Amino acid sequence: MFKREMFFSALAAFLALTLIVASLPAAAQSGFLSTATPPPSPTNNGGNAQWTILNSTFESNFPKGFTFTLEATSTGGKIVSAAALWRHSPVSSRTRRLATIDESGTKMVAVWEKSPGDAVPQWAGVEYWWVLQDEVGNIYETPRQYAEYADNTRKWHRMESDDIIVFWQDGVPDEIGPLTIAAMERQRPFYELNWANPLGYKPRAIIYADFETWAEWSPGRGTVGGGLVVVGQTSQSWGATAQVYDPFIQPVDEVANDTVLHEVAHLYQYANGGTSGLTWFIEGSATFFELRSGPRIEQRVRRWAREGRLPTLQERGPGGREAYDVGYMFWVWLTETYGADAHRRAWELVRSGRTQRAAIETVTGMNFLETETAFRTWLGAVNPEVPTPLPTLPFFLPPTPTYEPTPRR
Ligand SMILES: [Zn+2]
């Protein structure tokens, strides 16, 4: 929902970038890892040697980072170079750290420590593997293993279904788990109908009981300045949405039935053409997946239409709350008028490179001005002709980062 909406685009891009940058020094130090992207399934894996994995561990040191250890041998001789590699979702960039190796050439330790700009929330998934080189030059890539960046410093709860993994900090009402699982299951056919490309991974929802815990994993992230704070973020690079629960803003059933579904829709958007562009297009589409909010939004937007206050979608269209509400109604209109698969078709066109406006024009068979007039007429606008936007209107950058006034506590 609006209040909890984040940075989900700009920050995720920033994060992905810092992950890549962070991995470069390691690559530069290591001869055999100088290729930026070693193939995930190497041919001739292991070279002429026989490799044996004796022990492999992952340890979360949240909030500081995590540690990989490996004990392995090669019949080719001592292991002289080793790196742990990992990623937080199948669509995120991978990171690597060179390991220190003991004198026997069999025991390795690689450590990741968070830094400003290179941090992930607790309970991010970790898919990891090692690339090893022995003293005669054989190279071996270990099989993939999976772990979680567990927060062992406080009490958390976890529930998992076919659709989602939910983590909630002790203090968040426990209904959040089953409610979220039920909501995701109920919406499963709707996601399948409306997105051509599946996520390719199971999304995670991480719900914090207090702001301090949320702000801890990446100091400074919660504070934006100007008396505003960020209370949530959704990121493709960790395949998750992280949200602070605040009962005074949103009851738990709304978090489960609206917020999480909305944020998961943003993850689908990443996989189906991206989240940049027109705020009403992006946020309206994400709101389209909320289970409960629809009737209230419809009431509000139809009232604006009756009172002649409906903002236009021309140029960049509305910003802020109006973008979410009018955008939502636009997708309702489009799918009611042009078929239940109209959202899916429009996004497929965007994914194939069409602009958002051109994609909609293709679906409706009208130019965008005619399309908007038809939409406004359907809403019952007293002024269905599209008003000319004032040239002095400040346009909002999409998607609108949203903040909440600081006095939370
Ligand atoms: Zn959103």
Write a short abstract of this structure.
The chain is of the alpha+beta class and 409 residues long. The chain is built from ten helices and 17 strands. It folds into two domains: 2-10 and 155-405, Neutral Protease, domain 2 (Orthogonal Bundle), CATH 1.10.390; 13-148, Immunoglobulin-like, CATH 2.60.40.10.
What is the residue-mean pLDDT, rounded to a whole number? 86
CATH-level-2 architecture of the largest domain: Orthogonal Bundle
SSE string, helices as H and strands as E: HEEEEEEEEEEEHEHEEEEHHHHHHHE
Shape: elongated
Number of domains: 2
Oligomer: single chain
**Helix amount:** 25-40%
Bin the strand percentage: 15-25%
Describe the protein's architecture and organization:
By secondary structure, the protein is of the alpha+beta class. The chain has two domains: 2-10 and 155-405, Neutral Protease, domain 2, CATH 1.10.390; 13-148, Immunoglobulin-like (Sandwich), CATH 2.60.40.10. It is built from ten helices and 17 strands. Strands 3, 4, 7, 8 and 9 form a five-stranded antiparallel β-sheet that branches. A five-stranded mixed β-sheet has the order 10-11-12-16-15. A hairpin with a 4-residue loop joins strand 10 (156-160) and strand 11 (165-169). It binds zinc ion. Zinc ion (ZN) binds at residues 5, 262, 266, 283, 286.
